[in-house]
Write a structure and sequence with these properties.
With about 120 residues, this protein is mainly alpha-helical. About 60% of the residues lie in helices and about 0% in strands. It contains 4 helices and no strands. Bound molecules: fe (ii) ion.
Length: about 120
């Protein structure tokens, strides 16, 4: 799946075209993850299921890498990912101070290594 441009590409900046490529990549990686999930549901051969699961896991890595590339370049996306990722509880409550997240931008690993729940 390729997401079409909504304006003539020649009128877009190089940065916007690169962002478009990355957004397309994220969509394609998640699409592949979804396809593999479907195949996992119906594949009965265990060795083939293992191969499909391996490939699906690699697509997860690709999706995460493309998303991180975008996060580093789109401040509003960075802010939302920092707000929602690695939280617990109802997502609709994250903005209301109900869910616990790491507001310092860390992954909370320092807490975890001290034996506390991150
Ligand atoms: Fe991929």
């Amino acid at each position: 799946m390729t997401i079409e441009y909504h304006e003539p590409p020649s009128e877009l900046s190089a940065r916007t075209r690169d962002l478009h490529r990355a957004y397309c990549s994220v969509v394609e990686e998640f699409e592949a993850i979804d396809w593999y999930e479907h195949r996992l549901d119906v594949t009965e051969d265990e060795e083939l299921r293992s191969l499909i699961k391996h490939n699906q896991d690699e697509e997860c890595e690709h999706a995460a890498m493309a998303l991180e590339w975008l996060r580093r370049r789109v401040p509003a996306l960075d802010a939302q990912l920092r707000k929602y990722l690695f939280t617990e509880g109802p997502l609709t409550e994250v903005g209301h101070g109900e869910a616990k997240g790491n507001t310092d931008g860390s992954l909370g690993l320092a807490k975890a290594t001290k034996g506390e729940k991150a």
